[in-house]
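Quick one, tokens below. Sequence please?
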């Protein structure tokens, strides 16, 4: 099955057609700059522009940076508040004119890695963490996803951990890799005490620079970079749609 995978991020949309049997990205990815202030209707229009770029009429899988239950969005920590409570699948289907299925963006990235990437054939507890605008998480046991784990919102000093350790937080706080890695270590150690992962997979744009920060981590678990790098969200959104639609 071929599905257009789209990853909604804090500052851009990324998309590409994906062969869901193999996880192969079938065309060079396309990126559209967006703003965190886009309303659901404007986001729908951006999704339609992405589909038009690929002249796409088939099914569309969308990764969204918030809790997703069926067609409904339940949270929107870094995007417009009007997404909360929305039947986004229906709204986006209306605007895009194609079948749309939704999944949490980090769950999407994790699905790609668990199926075809760094977590393929790994037994036990696998924790995917994405470090981007926010911090996303996806938890797997023997390859099966526990959805909407939302570990970026565990609290440190009364604030979500993502405010300290996301890729955006690293920039905002002006931290170099060793200083940022010290905070990421503290964060992962807290997660280790809660879910005892056998493997941690690090994703998000900053995972491409893993050789600059993995050596500074002081954690128990084995950690590896996402194999799909920044395409994990696109591939996983397509995989989820192939299973759901
Ligand atoms: C959201 C998560 C999302 C993560 C990464 C968090 O703020 O609550 O749902 O996976 O950001 O985008």
């Amino acid at each position: 099955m071929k599905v257009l995978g789209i990853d909604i991020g804090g500052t851009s949309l990324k998309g590409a057609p994906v062969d869901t049997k193999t996880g192969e990205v079938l065309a060079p990815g396309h990126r559209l700059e967006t703003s965190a202030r886009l309303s659901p209707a404007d986001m729908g229009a951006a999704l339609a522009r992405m589909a038009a770029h690929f002249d796409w009429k088939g099914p569309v899988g969308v990764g969204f940076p918030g809790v997703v239950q069926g067609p409904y969005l339940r949270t929107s920590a870094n995007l417009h508040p009007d997404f909360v409570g929305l039947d986004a699948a229906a709204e986006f289907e209306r605007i895009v004119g194609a079948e749309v299925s939704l999944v949490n963006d980090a769950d999407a990235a994790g699905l790609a890695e668990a199926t075809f990437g760094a977590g393929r054939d790994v037994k036990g507890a696998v924790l995917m963490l994405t470090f981007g605008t926010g911090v996303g998480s996806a938890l797997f046991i023997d390859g099966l996803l526990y959805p909407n784990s939302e570990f970026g919102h565990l609290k440190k000093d009364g604030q979500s951990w993502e405010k300290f350790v996301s890729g955006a937080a690293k920039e905002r706080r002006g931290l170099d890799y060793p200083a940022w890695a010290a905070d990421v270590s503290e964060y992962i150690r807290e997660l280790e005490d809660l879910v005892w992962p056998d493997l941690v997979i690090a994703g998000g744009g900053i995972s491409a620079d893993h050789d600059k920060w993995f050596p500074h981590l002081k954690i128990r678990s084995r950690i590896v970079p996402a194999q799909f790098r920044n395409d994990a969200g696109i591939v996983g959104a397509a995989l989820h749609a192939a299973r759901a639609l």
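Residues 65-67, 75, 77-78, 104-106, 130, 132, 134, 136, 150, 152-153, 162 surround beta-D-glucopyranose (CB under 6 Å). The chain has two domains: 2-107+232-244, 122-226.
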